[in-house]
Predict the structure of Glutamate dehydrogenase.
Amino acid sequence: MRQFNHAADIMRLDKGIRKILASTNSEISVHFPVKMDDGRIEVFNGYRVQHNNSLGPYKGGLRFHPTVDINAARALAIWMTWKSSLVGLPYGGGKGGVSIDPKLYSIGELERITRRFTYSLGENIGPDVDIPAPDVNTNPQIMAWIADTFASTKSPSTRMLNLHVVTGKPVGSGGLNGRDRATGYGVVASIKSWAKLKGIELAGKKYIVQGFGNVGFWASHFMEELGAKLVAVQDASGTIFNEEGIDTEKLHNHVGNNSGLISGYDDADKMDNDKFFSLDCDIIIPAALGNQITEANAHLIKAKLIAEGANGPTDVDGEKILLSRGIDVIPDILCNAGGVTGSYYEWLQNKRSENYHIDTVLKMISEKLNEAFERTVNTAKKYDTDWRTGAYIAALERIQQTYMERGVFP
């Protein structure tokens, strides 16, 4: 909200529209019982926050994580509104999830939790109402369970018209070729736009990645293709470093066989977690959780660029320090927008009964993000402000125009 208010002040956002956007449209909280494998009944808490739908259906991820609550969902839903608007998608913002640690449950239990959560949300989601997608600890399989559950509650004659209630599905269930790498690809597309703007060659540049899940891996994969060198990775299990470079595919294979963690990787040295952000590198890609770059460590950063693969990895005070030191920040609502852009094309191909080739998908994502990057930079220049504020203003201008043209009912 501090970021929103700052941008709204600079652009002199209409007072009435400001009031609308400062609050959410709907907040759904559900408590639902599920039978465990041993016959016990447990009750779970699930949430879905719908921020604004002036541009189109609510859109945003569902996460399974112990930190999921209504406040976290609010913040993430609001970010989704700005993100969709900035990239030019016909979506509003939504977010939610279930407050659980999925590692504690069997596959069968996770399926029952997912299906009962979907059933509890009822008509609050739908292909033209609110379209969830994968997020932290959720994946294509979970999306397939949601799609099947939602569609199964509809008339048999309309069942196939409801499968795109979610995006991020397996390809065989209507998913998009390339959706798995869309967010990471978008991060690198934004980095390429930055490098072009600055006249920088990415080949040979050193970068570090926080988080080596889907986004961290694919961002590293595409950076490696450009000739950049991954020298350090950090996740919940620790930090690894290799000045000569870390092989992205080899680390990915290790993580896949090590419960999703980088610990124990042989071709890199273990190092203290608190030294990660102070490493000598050109680019940092935070692709884990929020509030990682703060007032406490921003002054240690030596990189020229922070490319925000995660949502909210840099807090307000930390960013002030970065900007004062001349370090560029590609804001999350631009940098990680490849995911929602890929979701849009999956939703579109489902509505049209089409299937896009992966090369076409990546090209379309790149074009959308290049346009959004240019829009962000130009807006920042126009208002003489930083890129995050420029991105917010560009997003808010589109929403403001919609309200001005349509008016407010009644």
